[in-house]
Amino acid sequence: MTLTPHFAPFGLRITAGPLELVPVTDDVIPELVELALEGIHPPDTMPFQEPWSIAPRRELGFNMAQYYWQQRADFGPGEWSLNFGVRFEGELVGCQDLRATKFRVTRTAESGSWLAMKHQGRGIGTRMRQAICAFGFDELGATELTSGAFVDNPASLAVSRKVGYRTNGTERRKRRTGELAHLQHLAISEQDLVRGEPITVEGAGALRSLLLLDDD
What's the domain range around 35? Predict the structure, then answer.
């Protein structure tokens, strides 16, 4: 017996060529923790709005497990976060998320991701974003998808440009303790998406039902 019939996100699988997005179940969390501990970014940079990646080694695993469990506890039609582990040619390489609030009204969702440093520079980040965008538009009926990156994160901004995002204003943010950073907001509509390999999706119908999207 599994939880998939009772928690639709666990039944999702998105495949695009050698790329696969799989749900972050409890057996995937330890793999993601080990991957994060191997390094996501150089120690003198911080690509995340919350600097979770620099937590002490003894705390990082606890924090990540607690985060994923909290996302599940809060999941529902009004607010949700889909958390995927990313496998490339079968190997776990990072994480891709899609989250929204009041999606039935706004039809807007925001993506976020990270890729282990040892797998960067291979085009995988672009493939991940193309796959999650195609899923959001094709399977969930999104009108707009958003993202963001600090202006000193050229790799993430380059991925956004390749996929077809437009800039959507900047915001001053506190990043690490006492540090000011400028966050570049980004947005994309379906007609601007530069698609990658076609996606195949398992479990989308059950998710749409849970999110009450088939009632609209």
Answer: 8-215
DSSP tally for the chain: helices H, then strands E: 6, 9
Coil/strand/helix, residue 82:
strand
Q: For residues 115 and 111, what is the distance between their CA atoms, to the nearest angstrom? A: 14
The overall pTM is greater than 0.70: yes
1 lies in some domain? no
Q: How many domains, in total, are found in the chain?
A: 1
Please indicate, yes or no, if residue 62 is contained in any of the structural domains.
Answer: yes
Q: Are the CB atoms for 168 and 187 separated by under 8 Å?
A: yes
Residue corresponding to tokens 């790329």 = 19
The torsion angles phi and psi of 127, rounded to 5 degrees, stand at -60, -40
pLDDT at 199 over 90: yes
The residue with tokens 């901004």 is 157
In a domain, 2, yes or no: no
Contact 43, 109 (CB under 8 A): no
